[in-house]
Amino acid sequence: MKRDPFWKRWTWKRWVANLMIIAGVGLLAYPLGTWGYTWFQQRELRNQLEESNPQITAYGDDVVRGDFIPAEVKAANAEDTSAQAAQTAEEVAAAEAAAEAAAAAEAERQARLDAFRAASLAYEESVAGKTGEPIGKILIPSIGMDVIMVEGTGKGDLADGPGHWPETPFPGQGGNFVVSGHRTTYGAPFLKLDKVEAGDQIDLVLPYAVARYEVTRVIIVYPDEVDEVAQRGREQVSLAACHPLYSAKQRIVVQGDLTGFILLEQ
Q: Into which CATH architecture does domain 12-68+119-263 fall?
């Protein structure tokens, strides 16, 4: 007995089921495709950054164990006047020597801070307008992040990696360095931002310095709440991404304060 052509044998339910399968494969292929694209882009950007700035790799150990210049030095408590009066001449001389050493160390720290700022301004000028260029690395040990960031936050820029908001100052200029990135597509560099906790460490490895931050807060905001990443006159970093996963309804923002830095010899 002759059978009907297949299109006559298929019911509407079978057509719907197969369309759903095709759609599902397409939905799965898209994020996987973006991950593959970004993997290749990150590899090329890393090679480009490190070939142009070998000091970044030469100081790799310093990112973990380096002698960082502190961003702030807490003032020592003043000694009790009666205790000062009871000091011997030798103790007074030792105290004066210690005070002189502390003053010299502070002068050296201030000189390094000035050099940090000068290097930051020079680097900012060198990358101005060069969107898509690799500008450094973001390292967050607590979540295993080691990713290349680029200049700019256009769609093409963020497809390559986390992007620096060009209107925000680079580390060393006394402001808030803001970076945006994807959480689900294009390599999902900021996938685990919700796992970061206060007290965690963030290192920004730039061609002129390694800037180390301590996370102060992790917040959830709406897209129009831009005041949360405003400039507050102190050295900060803000990493922002869509929240929750697979939604752009809100933003998750990880913020940290600068605790120290290392100047890299270029």
A: Beta Barrel (2.40)
Longest dimension (CA), the chain: 119
d(CA 143, CA 195) in angstroms, rounded, equals 7
- How many CB atoms are closer than 10 A to CB 9? 9
97/117 Cα distance (integer angstroms)? 30
pTM for the predicted model, two decimal places: 0.81
Domain boundaries, the chain: 12-68+119-263
Query: Could you write out the DSSP letters of every residue in 201-232?
Result: EEEEE-SSEEEEEEEEEEEEE-TT-GGGG---
Q: Rounded to an integer, what distance in angstroms lies between the CA atom of residue 185 and that of residue 197? A: 23
User: Distance (Å, rounded) from C-alpha 69 to C-alpha 212?
Assistant: 10
**Poorest-confidence range of 90-104, 136-150, 171-185?**
90-104
Q: Are 151 and 130 in contact (CB under 8 A)?
A: yes
List, in sequence order, the alpha helices (H) in the chain: 6-9, 12-52, 55-58, 62-65, 81-85, 89-127, 155-160
CA distance 145 to 202: 9
Omega of the bond leading into 244 within 30 degrees of 0 (cis):
yes
Across the range 51-69, mean pLDDT stands at 74
Neighbours of 152 (CB within 10 A): 21
Pick from 264, 261, 265: nearest CA to 68 = 261
Per mean pLDDT, which range of 34-38, 132-136, 246-250, 260-264 is the poorest? Answer: 34-38
SS3 264: coil
Residue 261: phi, psi to the nearest 5?
Answer: -155, 160
